[in-house]
Design brief:
alpha/beta, Rossmann fold, seven-stranded parallel β-sheet, two-stranded antiparallel ribbon, 9 helices, binds nicotinamide-adenine-dinucleotide
């Protein structure tokens, strides 16, 4: 392969693996094994398909069974092996069980992409216990447990990469979206802690903050945001928000996924505890 992925791992014509990311299993000529959460659609689906296109074996998990079946179909079109895991990731033990499924099937785990996310628009002064706990259960607790479970396997392997999906919102004051922004600040905190915990074993933990993409989550979030702010003309509201982006447009899901895949497969081995912004210049910190 050439271009964007040119410096990274690639499968050469002989069927062997070579490149910057060479855990023992790849040296033995088996593909890297990845787990992508929240893979029933949106960014997670695109990441799963792009990782599969790079020749990895991909486990995909989500609460949405139909979406997972469709993602699995797309992954198979890349001639990659796929493991479908349907269930609520917030249940106690679910993240650990998903990691174990990957280990049971392929003998280890090389990549974890913590992409599953949930958020609800709710003015802070009206916010409810229910939405806080639901948001934190997925975005923080389940993500932490997935990092822990995969991190333990990667520690023993002495290799692996974790990519956590955060948000520009984690560093912003958004009074209509506080549980979500607080949860993504939690993602940043977990990324820092996990990167230090796993650095002695050569395991890399980074995060990526996507800007506004056209996904199911973003569409419903912005419609709700327009509603709570009394904005009846949704298109006008969306256009106004797009104009705030220095690059002047919203992100393609595929280009954000390319950056996730870069962190998961190609980023230099000295890069850990980093946060990569893919917000078209919106988040400049
Ligand atoms: N869309 C954006 O503009 C944007 C911006 C910044 C950050 N993000 C982040 O990117 C990630 C992907 O978001 P997306 O826009 O593709 O959203 P999405 O809604 O399309 O994907 C999120 C997935 O998580 C799954 N999920 C929700 N609750 C679950 C649960 N309890 N158990 C298992 N799976 C569950 C959903 O079914 C869904 O498939 C999220 O972490 C989100 O916070 C998105």
């Amino acid at each position: 392969m050439t271009g964007f992925y040119g410096t990274g791992i690639k499968r050469v014509k002989t069927g062997r693996w070579e490149g910057a990311f060479l855990p023992a299993e790849i040296k033995n000529n088996t593909p890297p094994r990845a787990l992508v959460t929240g893979a029933a659609g949106g960014l997670g689906r695109e990441v799963a398909v792009q990782i599969a296109a790079r020749g990895c074996a991909v486990a995909i998990t989500d609460i949405n069974a139909e979406g997972i079946a469709e993602t699995a179909r797309l992954v198979r079109t890349q001639s990659a092996e796929v493991e479908e895991i349907v269930g609520d990731f917030t249940l106690e033990g679910a993240p650990e069980a998903a990691v174990q499924r990957v280990v049971d099937r392929w003998g280890g785990i090389d990549i974890l992409v913590n992409n599953a996310g949930y958020g609800v628009i709710e003015p802070f002064l009206d916010s409810t216990y229910k939405s806080w706990t639901r948001t934190l259960a997925l975005n923080v607790t389940a993500l932490a447990m997935a990092c822990k479970a995969a991190g333990r396997v990667m520690r023993d392997q002495r290799s692996g990469r974790i990519v956590n999906i955060t948000s520009p919102g984690s560093r912003m004051a958004l009074p209509d979206y506080t549980a979500y922004t607080a949860s993504k600040a939690g993602v940043d905190s977990i990324t820092r802690a996990a990167s230090v915990a796993l650095a002695p074993y050569g395991v890399l933990v980074n995060s990526l903050a996507p800007g506004m993409m056209d996904t199911e989550m973003q569409r419903s979030t912005e419609a709700d945001l327009a509603r709570v702010n009394g904005r009846n003309d949704l298109q006008d509201f969306l256009d106004e928000r797009t104009k705030r982006i220095p690059l002047g447009r919203r992100a393609e899901i595929s280009e954000v996924a390319e950056a996730v895949v870069w962190l998961a497969l190609d980023a230099p081995k000295y890069m850990t505890a980093e946060r990569l912004n893919m917000s078209g210049g919106l988040d400049k910190d």
